[in-house]
């Protein structure tokens, strides 16, 4: 585990001085399971003529198996609504975002029914900084640091057992152009560190708690109206005992839908 963490830090430090746009809507953590699934639909919109400001909005749904079966769509787990604003200058990209999440909570023992309370709300704000680097004609690298504040509540807006969390995420993403027709392979590794506040205790020790590996195929047609991503994520959760969740994922991102609508409207 320590070796995995140190390798990530070395890669992150090297790549930060040697980058690309967020190319897919990454799956979130889905809790304890064998397998999971994630589907999302979103839109990226340029907000000014120079394209230095962008908006990214999406809605996503996650499902998962029980800890003792392998169906990635066996039961519901997560609904996500996300809004993010980006600002780009040269190779740097900054963002600020708000996210709302409604999550099913289950007992840890058979038959894995909903716990009490059976649903949890999460209100999340985060920001991130990334640096885009071209490493040759076809390869781009993107190291990213992301800081999050997470607030957890029941559906009745009472405190959940875990009241809040501060989390830092370090990610390295690589994008390789397969051909000139808009096909790419995108890989990523992300390390997550967190400290939590519960109802009966003060803030916990800040430490690593997850490692996520992802591999995607991405396709953007010549007209660039949308991007389709299909991929896989392995979420290694550093709890005792350790466990992995294998997640299949797909998302569809519409590029500048308001601009496309405006052009068509002007030609009517």
Provide a short characterization of the protein structure:
With 268 residues, the chain is mainly beta. It contains two helices and twelve strands. An eleven-stranded mixed β-barrel has the order 1-2-3-4-5-7-8-9-10-11-12.
Set out the fold topology.
Layout: H1 2-17, E1 35-46, E2 53-64, E3 75-89, E4 92-106, E5 114-131, E6 133-134, E7 139-153, E8 159-177, E9 183-198, E10 207-219, E11 226-237, E12 243-255, H2 257-266
Parallel strand pairs: 1-12
Antiparallel strand pairs: 1-2, 2-3, 3-4, 4-5, 5-7, 6-7, 7-8, 8-9, 9-10, 10-11, 11-12
Protein name: DUF2490 domain-containing protein
Organism: Polluticaenibacter yanchengensis
Core attributes:
mainly beta, 12 strands, disordered N terminus, 60% strand, Lipocalin, DUF2490 domain-containing protein, eleven-stranded mixed β-barrel, 2 helices, globular, 268 residues
């Amino acid at each position: 585990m320590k070796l995995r963490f140190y390798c990530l830090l070395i890669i992150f430090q090297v790549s930060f001085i040697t980058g690309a746009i967020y190319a897919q809507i990454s799956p979130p953590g889905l809790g304890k399971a064998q397998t999971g699934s994630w589907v999302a639909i979103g839109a990226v919109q340029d907000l000014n003529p120079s394209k230095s400001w962008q908006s990214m909005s999406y809605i996503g749904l996650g499902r998962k198996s029980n800890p003792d079966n392998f169906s990635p769509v066996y039961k519901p787990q997560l609904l996500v609504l996300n809004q993010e604003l980006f600002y780009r200058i040269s190779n740097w990209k900054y963002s600020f975002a708000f996210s709302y999440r409604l999550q099913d909570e289950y007992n840890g023992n058979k038959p894995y029914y909903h716990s009490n309370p059976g649903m949890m709300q999460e209100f999340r704000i985060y920001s991130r900084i990334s640096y885009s680097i071209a490493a040759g004609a076809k390869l781009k690298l993107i190291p990213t640091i992301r800081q999050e504040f997470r607030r957890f509540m029941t559906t009745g807006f009472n405190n959940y057992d875990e009241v809040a969390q501060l989390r830092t995420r370090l990610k390295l993403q690589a994008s390789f152009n397969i051909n000139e027709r808009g096909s790419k392979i995108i890989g990523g590794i992300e390390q997550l560190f967190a400290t939590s506040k519960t109802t009966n205790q003060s803030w916990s020790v800040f430490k690593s708690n997850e490692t996520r590996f992802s591999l995607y195929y991405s396709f953007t047609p010549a007209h660039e109206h949308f991007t389709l991503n299909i991929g896989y994520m392995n979420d290694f959760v550093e709890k005792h005992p350790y466990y992995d969740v294998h997640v299949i994922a797909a998302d569809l991102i519409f590029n500048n839908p308001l601009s496309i609508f405006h052009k068509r409207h002007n030609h009517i």
